[in-house]
Amino acid sequence: MTVYNFTVGMSCDGCVTAVKAALASLPGTACSVSLPDQRVTVDSSLPYDTIKDALVRTGKPVS
């Protein structure tokens, strides 16, 4: 498993829910989301691009 860290522009609990739902759809992926820090930490064996694509599909800015 690899740990990835992303900065995701989130402004509310709904944003957090959307991010968690997007990542929950990926097999073998665990995440923690910090709204105040705008940080998403993902533990997964999937490639970086697969995880980033799932986050981008939420419509939130990802870096």
Automatic annotation (TrEMBL):
Provide a Gene Ontology MF annotation, just one: copper chaperone activity
Does Thylakoid show up as a keyword for this record? no
Q: Which GO terms describe its biological process?
A: copper ion transport
| Domain HMA residues, every copy | 1-63
Q: Which UniProt keywords apply?
A: Chaperone, Copper, Copper transport, Ion transport, Metal-binding, Transport
Q: Which domain of life is it from?
A: Eukaryota
Gene Ontology cellular-component terms listed: cytosol
Record's PANTHER family? COPPER TRANSPORT PROTEIN ATOX1
**What family, per the record?**
Belongs to the ATX1 family.
Q: What is this protein called?
A: 2601_t:CDS:1
Q: What is the lineage of its organism?
A: Eukaryota, Fungi, Fungi incertae sedis, Mucoromycota, Glomeromycotina
